[in-house]
Design goal:
Keywords: Golgi apparatus, Membrane, Protein transport, Transport
Oligomer: single chain
Main location: Golgi
Number of strands: 0
Number of domains: 2
Radius of gyration: 32 Å
Strand content: under 5%
Family: Belongs to the COG8 family.
Subcellular location: Golgi apparatus membrane
Order of helices and strands: HHHHHHHHHHHHHHHH
Membrane topology: Peripheral membrane protein
Structural class: mainly alpha
Distance between the termini: 105 Å
Largest sheet: none
Length: 355
């Protein structure tokens, strides 16, 4: 009969409201930058409300909300800075969350953590790692510098090693992400080099320049190990622009050049040479380049040397590409230039000299 009294009902409603308010405050506290002692105190209160499995899930939800909150507030205008800071924050807070979870719910003496919590912690942590890798995959194409790619890779590796201390090493998931980014960056830079070459070629007049400062035998005396652009390219602006563009693409590739990509990079390199050779063939058909005006084989030789210095064996891959057999071969046939460097023979000569 007493529960039907309005006073009792009002008191019950007020107690329920107060309890809900206190519970909300405790949950909000778990969603903040909280240390382990405070976690222990709050979890002690919540044990009177939730079951053990519900409490574990609630704790992980709160830590995820806290982590998402600090990531949302980050400035994403600077892509490079955003990626580095995002990876660094996830590493620190994820390690803290895992350590706190294990300290709070370590009363179960089961040998395997996945057995007593049904893999809850592992699943939650993997969800966080996959979320981070998805963000990296989306943002990486916006990185336009090879050095920045290399630094982000180092940051991700450092993050994976740190998480490895709590059993969450994900270094094996990184190569596929960064290989795609490196290939896209090189392909984009090669396309830019070809476009710049075409623009200069369309507006260029091939006027013979005096040979002062450019000895005729300079091309033959240059060492195959020298990757400095040959000086005679200054006489031919379109080729100079193309060589500079490809050199820039390879310089961006140098800080982060996966050996596993050398075949695909060689194909991209060949696809860049093909339209240049085709354009020069069309130009030659219309205006008939003189013997001293093409120098295309010199340029190709220099670029192959660059690729050889960047990825051992890379130049040999390029010279074997069938896509180069038409335009490039014809240009090499009409150019009175030196032979292309043979990386394999060059390696054997160096090895013999060392022996």
């Amino acid at each position: 009969m007493h529960p039907m009294l309005s006073v009792i009902q009002a008191l019950e409603a007020e107690v329920r409201q107060t309890t809900q308010s206190l519970l909300s405050q405790l949950i909000q506290k778990l969603q903040s930058n909280i240390e382990l002692p405070e976690c222990l105190r709050i979890i002690g209160y919540l044990r009177h409300i939730y079951s053990e499995s519900e409490l574990r899930l609630q704790f992980l939800r709160c830590r995820e909300a806290w982590l998402d909150g600090i990531l949302v507030d980050m400035d994403q205008r600077n892509v490079y800075g955003y990626l580095k800071e995002m990876v660094n924050r996830r590493r620190g807070h994820l390690i803290n969350a895992v350590n706190q979870y294990r300290a709070l719910f370590s009363d179960d003496k089961s040998e395997s953590e996945e057995n007593y919590d049904s893999g809850l912690l592992f699943s939650w942590a993997m969800h966080q790692i996959i979320s981070q890798l998805k963000t990296v995959r989306i943002v990486l194409p916006k990185i336009t510098e090879g050095g920045s790619l290399s630094n982000i890779l180092e940051q991700c590796m450092y993050c994976a090693v740190g998480l490895g201390l709590v059993g969450l090493d994900f270094r094996g998931l990184l190569p596929s992400l960064f290989e795609g980014a490196v290939l896209n960056l090189f392909s984009m830079n090669m396309s830019t080099a070809v476009e710049d070459f075409q623009i200069v070629l369309d507006s260029n007049r091939w006027v013979p320049l005096p040979s002062v400062g450019f000895p005729a035998n300079s091309a033959t005396e240059e060492s195959q190990e020298d990757v400095t652009p040959p000086s005679y390219l200054m006489e031919h602006p379109p080729l100079a622009v193309f060589v500079n563009g490809v050199s820039a693409a390879m310089n961006e590739l140098r800080p982060c050049a996966p050996v596993s990509l050398k075949h695909m990079l060689a194909q991209e390199f060949g696809r860049g040479l093909q339209p240049v050779s085709d354009s020069l063939l069309r130009y030659n058909a219309n205006k008939m380049l003189r013997a001293n005006e093409s120098n295309f084989s010199h340029s190709v030789g220099h670029l192959l040397s660059l690729f050889w210095s960047l990825l051992p064996g890379g130049a040999a891959l390029i010279t074997d590409l069938k896509s180069l057999s038409d335009g490039v071969s014809l240009l090499l046939a009409v150019s009175p230039a030196r032979e292309l460097p043979n990386p394999v023979e060059h390696l054997e000569e160096k090895h013999a000299s060392l022996v």
